[in-house]
Amino acid sequence: MACFSTTGNLHPLSPTRVEAVIALTWKASIEAAKVTSSKDQASKTWMSLPVNIRRRMVPPLSDNSLGNIWLPALTPLIEMDEMVELNDYAKLVRKTVRKVDGDYVSKFQQGDAIGISQVFLETFNEEMLTMIEDCPSYRYSSWMGFPLYERDFGWGKPTWVYTLGVPSKWYFNLLPTRSGDGIEAWGNLSEEDMQQFERNPELLQFASLAS
C-alpha cells in the first residue's frame, strides 16, 4: 500500500484534481505492469470510478443526503500501447466521467430499461465481456468533496481520516488531505508493480510517496 499527495495540475486540459490524479496513477500503474508482466499476459486494460450523482439528478438531491448515491463511470477496453502521453489518459478519464451526465442519470431514475442497456452496451461490447476478467481493471474510489475533516463526534475534529479500501489488486482510494489542498491516493498493486510504480519519474514530479 502506498500513499502520495499532490496539488499538481495537468496542462492544457485542466481536468479536475481527481481526474488528474486518476490519469497520473493509472498511467504509472500501466507502465509498471508493462515492465513486470510477461508477453502472454493481457495487453488491454480499463478503469472504473463511482460518480456522485446527487447534483446530476432531477431534481438534484442535497449534498447531505445519505446512502450510496452513485453510478459507475467506465472506460472502454483499451490497448495499453495506445496510451502514451499523460494527456491521453487525462482525456479518456475526463470523457468517461462526463458521460455520467443528467441524461445518463435520468435513464436510471425513469427505469428506462432500453436506455440503460444502451448505456452499458456502449462500454461493455462483446469483446470486453469476453476479455474483462483477464484484463487489469484499475478501480478508483474518491471521497473528495466530502467534509471529512469537519466532522466532530464529540472528541474534536479528526487529525487524520481514512476509509477501508477494497483488498484487491489494481485499486486506488482517493481522500482529501487535512489541509484541503492535496489528495491522498492509497494504491493496492502487486509488490513487483508497486516497486516500479514508486520509481516512475513522471509520478514523482507531482507527488510525494510514503509507505
Quaternary state, please?
Answer: single chain
What is the name of the CATH architecture?
2-Layer Sandwich
How much helix, percentage-wise, in residues? 25-40%
Gyration radius over CA = 18 Å
CATH level-four homologous superfamily name: Chloramphenicol acetyltransferase-like domain
Structural class: alpha+beta
Could you tell me the CATH topology label. Chloramphenicol Acetyltransferase
Distance between the termini: 7 Å
Mean pLDDT score: 79
Total domains, how many? 1
Overall 3D shape: globular
E-strand count: 8
Give the class-level CATH name.
Alpha Beta
Low-confidence stretches: 1-13
Total number of helices: 7
| Major sheet attributes | 8 strands, mixed
User: What is the chain-wise order of helices and strands?
Assistant: EHEEEHHHHEEEHHE
- What percent of residues are in strands? 15-25%
Task: List key phrases describing it.
211 residues; alpha+beta; Chloramphenicol Acetyltransferase; 8 strands
Describe the structure.
This protein is of the alpha+beta class and 211 residues long. The chain has one domain: Chloramphenicol Acetyltransferase (2-Layer Sandwich). The chain has 7 helices and 8 strands. Strands 1, 2, 3, 4, 5, 6, 7 and 8 form an 8-stranded mixed β-sheet that branches. A hairpin with a 6-residue loop joins strand 6 and strand 7.
